[in-house]
Amino acid sequence: MIKIKSDREIELMKKAGKIVGDTHNYLKKYIKPGITTKELDKLANDFIIKNGASPSFKGYDGYPGSICTSINDEVVHGIPSNRKLKEGDIISIDIGACYMGYHGDSAWTYPVGKISKELEDLLKHTEESLFAGLSAIKEGARIGDIGYNVESVAKKYNLGVVKELVGHGVGTDVHEDPDVPNYGRKGTGPVLKKGMVIAVEPMLNLGSADVAILDDDWTIVTMDSSPSAHFEHTVVVTSDGYQILTER
Length: 248
Ligand code: MF3
Ligand code: CO
Prior knowledge:
Helix content: 25-40%
Bound molecules: 2-amino-4-trifluoromethylsulfanyl-butyric acid, cobalt (II) ion
Radius of gyration: 17 Å
Largest sheet: 5 strands, antiparallel
Strand content: 25-35%
Mean pLDDT: 98
Strand order of the largest sheet: 8-7-9-14-15
Number of strands: 15
Structural class: alpha+beta
Low-confidence stretches: none
Number of helices: 4
């Protein structure tokens, strides 16, 4: 069942989303060669708590971190560890915060120091696919319109679209109905209504779309070890478009 949020709920979700966006802004300054993903996790955890929220992912299905940190060929759900960032890496940071019972969810992929032109393009094009997907959103549009737009951008740049993981509704749970795939056909899927809150989150690979899961039972990696990027915003559907709740 897809929930429609009341004005009061949307106000709370704006607060949750703002804390997520602010945490990204805060963390960004620390993304440099030499820092470990565990240090980033602690910085984010403490920042979220200081802002009166709690990290949504901690303990979710037993997930051990407060955020997800996925480097290079890691697509999503990388667990913070003692691994140090290196010059030329890319890192996807996925942050969720829960404020007064409501969640915000946003991921972004960052360069570590100077990165190759190829990786710069991967980040630029994956971000472009997120905004193309979002541009389909308004009351009366359908979930398939979003995926169609994301996939069109991926095809234009010959990037692999990860299909095993999808965007989702957001509310009192981090993952609510509906699923929001990063592929699809126009005019198909559930109809969007004002007050629905969804997270759109393309995961695009420089190589093939195929992914595998590591022995830690969390980390998703590309099968061909090609780098992968992930950009995600939580948005509320409005009568003529959408509003981003996790703006940075
Ligand atoms: N942010 C992820 C998503 O967008 C959720 C992380 S799942 C967790 O769906 F278990 F790692 F928390
Ligand atoms: Co999400």
